[in-house]
Amino acid sequence: MRLNNRPNNEIRPISFELGFLKHHKSSVLMSLGETKVLAVVSSENRVPAHRYEIGGWLSAEYNMMPGATFPRKPRAISKLRNDGRSVEISRLIGRSLRQAVDINAIGPRTLSIDCDVISADAGTRSACITAGYMALVLHVAELLKSNQIKMKTMEDIILRPVAAVSLGVINDQILCDLDYQEDFKADTDCNLVASNNNQIIEFQSTAEQKPLNQNLLVEMLGVGQHAITQLLDLQKKTLLKAGIVLHH
Amino acid sequence: MRLNNRPNNEIRPISFELGFLKHHKSSVLMSLGETKVLAVVSSENRVPAHRYEIGGWLSAEYNMMPGATFPRKPRAISKLRNDGRSVEISRLIGRSLRQAVDINAIGPRTLSIDCDVISADAGTRSACITAGYMALVLHVAELLKSNQIKMKTMEDIILRPVAAVSLGVINDQILCDLDYQEDFKADTDCNLVASNNNQIIEFQSTAEQKPLNQNLLVEMLGVGQHAITQLLDLQKKTLLKAGIVLHH
Amino acid sequence: MRLNNRPNNEIRPISFELGFLKHHKSSVLMSLGETKVLAVVSSENRVPAHRYEIGGWLSAEYNMMPGATFPRKPRAISKLRNDGRSVEISRLIGRSLRQAVDINAIGPRTLSIDCDVISADAGTRSACITAGYMALVLHVAELLKSNQIKMKTMEDIILRPVAAVSLGVINDQILCDLDYQEDFKADTDCNLVASNNNQIIEFQSTAEQKPLNQNLLVEMLGVGQHAITQLLDLQKKTLLKAGIVLHH
Amino acid sequence: MRLNNRPNNEIRPISFELGFLKHHKSSVLMSLGETKVLAVVSSENRVPAHRYEIGGWLSAEYNMMPGATFPRKPRAISKLRNDGRSVEISRLIGRSLRQAVDINAIGPRTLSIDCDVISADAGTRSACITAGYMALVLHVAELLKSNQIKMKTMEDIILRPVAAVSLGVINDQILCDLDYQEDFKADTDCNLVASNNNQIIEFQSTAEQKPLNQNLLVEMLGVGQHAITQLLDLQKKTLLKAGIVLHH
Amino acid sequence: MRLNNRPNNEIRPISFELGFLKHHKSSVLMSLGETKVLAVVSSENRVPAHRYEIGGWLSAEYNMMPGATFPRKPRAISKLRNDGRSVEISRLIGRSLRQAVDINAIGPRTLSIDCDVISADAGTRSACITAGYMALVLHVAELLKSNQIKMKTMEDIILRPVAAVSLGVINDQILCDLDYQEDFKADTDCNLVASNNNQIIEFQSTAEQKPLNQNLLVEMLGVGQHAITQLLDLQKKTLLKAGIVLHH
Amino acid sequence: MRLNNRPNNEIRPISFELGFLKHHKSSVLMSLGETKVLAVVSSENRVPAHRYEIGGWLSAEYNMMPGATFPRKPRAISKLRNDGRSVEISRLIGRSLRQAVDINAIGPRTLSIDCDVISADAGTRSACITAGYMALVLHVAELLKSNQIKMKTMEDIILRPVAAVSLGVINDQILCDLDYQEDFKADTDCNLVASNNNQIIEFQSTAEQKPLNQNLLVEMLGVGQHAITQLLDLQKKTLLKAGIVLHH
User: Fold this and answer.
1) Which residues on C lie below 8 Å from E61 (Cβ)?
2) Is F225 a residue whose pLDDT tops 90?
3) What stretches in chain B show pLDDT beneath 70?
């Protein structure tokens, strides 16, 4: 039995707080059950070398704050290196959100997605992608409104919505959006990043306790697609309330 | 004229949210006008070499989150070093809060004060000290309650309350608790860390645009003492609501 | 048409050179077409903190040598950090090969898998996993033979074989084991790490140019499973020639 | 009783050796009792980003040499980071000496103040500021003489003299310029950086053993101002002997 | 008696494999007995500051791979610093090969010599210089052939051949090209880098167990010169087979 | 003609100041012409892993202070790495002085030789070795006197005296102890580290502008041996004045 009798295929309660930071309208505080992440999008007028004279770029940084876990997580700077997990997740978020935006259409500009986990109860990487997409849309709306990007519509820049959900297998049961107590026990750990129309952006399935067979993997994908549909719907409604309409 | 007609000797509206983090009861989210800081206290059962077989230790880490300012502040790890300002403030917070606690009475244990600035509108270091003291009291209460520290009372460990306020001089006028717009224009920048009975823990006065004369410095100290009294009162009331009584 | 008329579902020519290094019998030089990787397994009598008094550990380091690509790849030390891609792949290799071995049965010992890419023509991460498994088996055989691990059989320690293959989609065609020219053009990039009986250890599918639909993903998985079967067979035969029989 | 019957308000014997280094005329070796510091000023034709097209900059680096203390102090590079104390003092020296010079009048040039403590017997930060001012004057004189700065007088660039002294409280007695034995026992640790006419540049008072009351703080400031007057006089005479006259 | 009855003044069997890497024709895999090194030369169109508007530059990086020794050698990045020995050898290789090439004649270009030790049985630094010279010649031939350097001959750029050999003294006996077992026991450790006509490029003699007298040093130099002649001859023949003729 | 008509085989005027630092009696300030170096020896009660249960160790750190050269040399910590030259020289000093002392006789203790170049006019590495030997003798004398090393004589620990000198060739003329103006022009750069009775500890000869022939090398060695004799004599007399007699 899951906490609060949550059905296996259901995601935890979600809330978004748009414009959470004084200095960044494109900031989103997202709660996913007890998990809280802050996603902020900002931009700089420069691009990495491999994008010179081609277009813009988008990259992400994922960070777990010291108090997000128990015991306290030491800061990256105290060891002079990012832990491997944070590096891996930063790359996943960057890859995923580059699918949301036409980086050739934004000019010589790098969009930075800062994802800080304030409180962790599993599902932090999916939450960061889901909240990051929201902040990205807010930021592009600002760039258009302030004429920093000219002669384009939202749909020229935002190619498709993006959301993510975690999945897992415990005793051959598929669970959607695991909390920490569940995640800890799972045989397989999985993340689905997807868009509308069941388009898959990234799908990762990792054996934790034991390998997985193919049928369960395909079934898990179906459960994930169902959750993504709900997340996309929630994102759309929240943006609509903030006055942003996206036609996809 | 200050924003919202605030009198020169008045601090901005303050709120505290105790137990903000799932994994750390001794976490305090403090708002000071538009400034928001998160202070978390945790402890480890080890001490630095200079405290072996003597007692415990307390240290602090101050960090500005990337979205706290505009433009975005790059993370320390991206340059492989903490910026000097953060190092300086971390040390100030540590020194100040070591005056609040009897580190010889806590056993071989290091208390870590994590101060993360979520949104910055000046006064962040004072806010971190003021909120850090609250989190420290919460943490000591937990250590006592869970018998991790035995046979002691709160007053054995918490020696005195500590709060801090920033002050500044603009055109020979003394201002209390400056916001960023004011801070930017100030000739002198000052911070007072103090306890009850006008006990001074740390007083720093720094010429920014031009030197200060002694009379203004002494006057500024008086304005600061007045603000500290209000802050200590607010801390006491807030802790009382959380069920914690301290007899000093 | 693929280079040398290679069919879409076929892997490139493979060779293994066991015991390539004077000082490490458990070293394997693997060629996969023009890709060459060197995998070496060694062990140390200590474990990370989270494994104290529980058992052993296994971790991997993936490194691209400066001359493996054109232009030359600067060394990690010259920037004082590992590039994110190497960190991500190191973690993938470690996770994958921890599924091959019972880390609770090897005593308080860390197995290090060093994977150095000497020459890169795509598929380097899969090659490292495939060759790493071989080196791991050689190393465990040595540990048993030299009585560093006592009273165990190969099958007690080696839980299952592990191999990996890369897959991709170009113009809705599924290709197996892409070379660099193909990889560069692929819409989707995928890696399958699997064991016998179609057991899936890790499956990652990443949109590069555009998202993928679910049918192609499932089809890709099938192509991958087919290639894995061939790789496992090749591993088994090669180990047999070296006098090592594994009953799974 | 202080060492050598020194009165409480008296500074230790001071000597300056100007032009101590072959390659830098603007180098000053200062002895303050047993404390020895070397201050060197040099300049580079570039400025940090926040000063582009505005003017010059001045920054300082404070470093304790390995043999300055017992036991030996490990070098910063051996831990890949500056210790917090050195960072804090570097910033204090930089802030203090930026009050001595009109950084808008020196052109796009950064003045570097290198302060190395050769031997430490407390008071090193004050000595570095006091000696650093001397080296700064020597350097500006050189820049004018060699026409690297044109059409300016010494007084255009050097705004005011700067000196610093440490103060402390032991058993409610105020001591001026403490040596290490005294510093170690002090309840309060204080530093005053000031100019002529009792202008205060930086005043820091830090509780070490216990908080301070306001009366002692004000009294301490008076003792400090007295010492500063002597230091400024000594600086002026020493520069005069070196042929440099400053009309303030 | 040496291994395989090798006479004291004889070098171990040598083989060169030119063009070992797919992406770098100027790569040389050299075996010297059981020692295996890979030398790769590549170039970049930029130079360090001290060569601006003067000419090109050449630098080298020496690296021992983790599996080259037993026990495994941790990677430089794991300690965030190169070990001192590697730094020292990198500098030796760079200095030595800068004598082979007219860096004023190659344009604003930096030649990078990457030397990776795959398997170490002593003599690695000499092998890297000897193999590095070969790779350097191959690279210059390419630069000329592809017209990246124009209007020059091989002899304009390659000033002289360079080879290196290690020497040692055990019980007052001079040995040439020591293997690890011999190196370990040697009283004196020596390296000779030289060109044709007995021209000495670098000669280093280091007491390991005890100091050396001058007669032995001079005698050792003679033995080294003899070995260098053989190495230069071997280099020349190998390059000739690859179609490269050098008239010195 | 050399500066001050110095003959080619003559070293510059030398002075030693023993016990230069308050906290370290075993500190030596050495002037060699305009070159000034400070050598300090201290010890710690621990040894590196390869010396566990065998004996002690000795290592050296060479550092050029920022004001030692013109233009100013940035500190190692500002680039988060030691420059290669400093690493190389640190190793040379360590190797050389390990020949002076019986590291098996000093117990589980590491002797640290800190060599800081205060002012550089060439010959800094030789000066550091020469001064380092003096500081080493002073330190061993202290260890014996304070009974930290027991039941040993000076001669049990100090095996032989060590001094060093630089040599160079300009226009086929051999010069001893070059200053910077000479060093800059030299075709060959050489350093001799030696003991009494012409025992050679380290001899390095490096082509700078062009290779060297063997006759000049041997002649240079003779000039160096002559200078070493003078240096050893000067060391002995200076130590004698400080009350230290060494019978070799």
Assistant:
1) 66, 75
2) yes
3) none
**Which regions in chain E score pLDDT beneath 70?**
none
Diameter of chain C measured on Cα atoms: 55
Does E116 contact C82 at a Cβ distance shorter than 8 Å?
Answer: no
Rounded to the nearest 5 degrees, what angle is found at the Cα of E60, between the Cα atoms of E58 and E62?
Answer: 175
* pLDDT range class, residue A159, cuts 50, 70, 90: very high
Mean pLDDT for the stretch of residues C22-28: 97
- Using N-to-C axis directions, what is the helix angle for F84-98 and E84-98, rounded to 10°? 110
Distances C49 to A83, C55, D144 between C-alpha atoms, Å? 15, 11, 62
pLDDT digits (tens, 9 = 90+) for A75-122: 999 999 999 999 999 999 999 999 999 999 999 999 999 999 999 999
What gap in Å lies between CA E132 and CA E136, rounded to an integer? 6
Rounded-to-10 torsion of CA F70, F76, F77, F81: 150
Chains touching B (at least 3 CB pairs under 8 A) are A, D
Task: State the smallest CA–CA distance between residue A134 and chain C in angstroms.
Answer: 19
Interface contact flag, F71 D44, Cβ < 8 Å = yes
Q: Tell me whether residues C76 and E71 touch, CB distance under 8 A.
A: no
Name every chain A residue with its beta carbon within 8 A of the beta carbon of B81. Answer: 77
The C-alpha torsion from D122 through D123 and D124 to D125, rounded to 10°, is 140
Q: What distance in Å separates residue F206's CA from the closest CA in chain E?
A: 5
DSSP structural state of residue B11:
P
Element (H, E) at B36: strand B35-44
- Give the tens place of pLDDT for each residue, C125-146: 999 999 999 999 999 999 999 9
- Phi, psi (rounded to 5 degrees) for A136: -65, -45
| D217 three-class SS | helix
Q: Inter-chain contact D160–B211, Cβ cutoff 8 Å?
A: yes
Q: How many CA atoms lie within 13 A of A163 on its CB side?
A: 21
Amino acid at E128: C
Q: Does residue D248 surpass a pLDDT of 90?
A: no
Complex-level ipTM: 0.97
Residue to substitute from E87, E191, E209, E228, interface F, most F β-carbons within 10 A: E87
> How close does chain F come to E87, measured CA to CA in Å?
6
Does D1 have pLDDT greater than 90?
A: no
Q: Is the pLDDT of residue F1 over 90?
A: no
Answer whether B43's CB lies under 8 Å from B30's CB.
Answer: no
Phi, psi of D199 (to 5 degrees): -75, 130
The pLDDT of residue D99 is above 90: yes
Please state, as a whole number, how many other Cβ atoms lie within 10 Å of the Cβ of residue D156. Answer: 14
Q: In angstroms, what separates the C-alpha of D213 from chain B's closest C-alpha?
A: 5
- Per-residue confidence (pLDDT) for residue C53, from 0 to 100: 93
Residues in chain B within 8 Å Cβ distance of D164: none
Rounded to whole angstroms, the Cα distance separating C188 from E22 reads 26
pLDDT at E242: 97
Give A166-208 pLDDT, tens digit per residue: 999 999 999 999 999 999 999 999 999 999 999 999 999 999 9
CA-only gyration radius of chain C, Å: 18
What are the tokens at A201? Answer: 């952006």
Instruction: Give the 3-state secondary structure percentages of chain D, helix then strand then coil, rounded to 5.
Output: 35, 30, 35
Quote the mean pLDDT of chain C. Answer: 97
Give every strand in the sheet of A110-119, ordered side by side. Answer: A14-18, A27-32, A35-44, A110-119, A57-64
In DSSP terms, B58 is beta-bridged to B111
* Chains in contact with C, counting 3 or more C-beta pairs less than 8 Å apart as contact: A, E
Place of tokens 């006789």: F105
Q: Looking at chain A, which subunits does it touch, using at least 3 CB pairs closer than 8 Å as the criterion?
A: B, C
Torsion angle of C-alpha atoms B47, B48, B54, B56, degrees rounded to 10: -40
B122 to A192, B79, B119: CA distances (angstroms): 41, 24, 9
Chain C and chain E share a number of CB contacts under 8 A equal to 97
